[in-house]
Amino acid sequence: MDNALAILSARLIAHRFIPRSDPLARRALVDEDFRRALEHRLNEVGLTLLENPYAEHMAVGLMGEMEAFVFGEGEAWLSNNMNLPRDAIALLVVLWALIILPKRERQVARAEKEREGQSDMFGAEKPLVQGEEVSVGVPEEALYADYRDKLGGKGRLNINLGQLARLGFIERRNKVILEGPLLDLMLDYSTLAPRVIEGALGEVLKRRAEEAVQPTPD
């Protein structure tokens, strides 16, 4: 077990994320003792395992009690350890709200519907819906049109999109922004979702959804 733990821990730290389909990652998901040993090893160096049943990858992040030591510098407080400027962080939250929030709503609704229809005693152990089957992309031109003035202009948006893509938060394919390996892991859904839904961004997303279903004039 020690060698497998060392390999998985090193890969998570070096690569920042690995797919759940990886043999060692799958072992961490089904072997409770192995999972506990992995979490203990990561905790010893101030890290924690990041995974949820809706994401296709697992990653490592900073333990909450380590934040002050890593992000706090005297009277200053770093917003992140990836050198992301404030407008890039704002863009990251916008993309999370546009991609992950609706994806999660569909996943939860589908999982609940499947559980209601399950009659076998092992049905609850079936995996939840994941991946691009329910994840939708955001056209770059639509993002520019909606948020260009608020997030520094098209040129600045394009620079920040490139940075978020390099870090693994998003993927850019054919002028469409898609979910990257870290988008559903690095941002805490339970904390961020209520703030987005109940805040100003929630109103923007609501208006956008209403406009999307309105019939276009002839």
Automatic annotation (TrEMBL):
Highest taxon, organism lineage: Bacteria
Name of this protein: DUF4194 domain-containing protein
Lineage start: Bacteria, Pseudomonadati, Pseudomonadota, Betaproteobacteria, Neisseriales
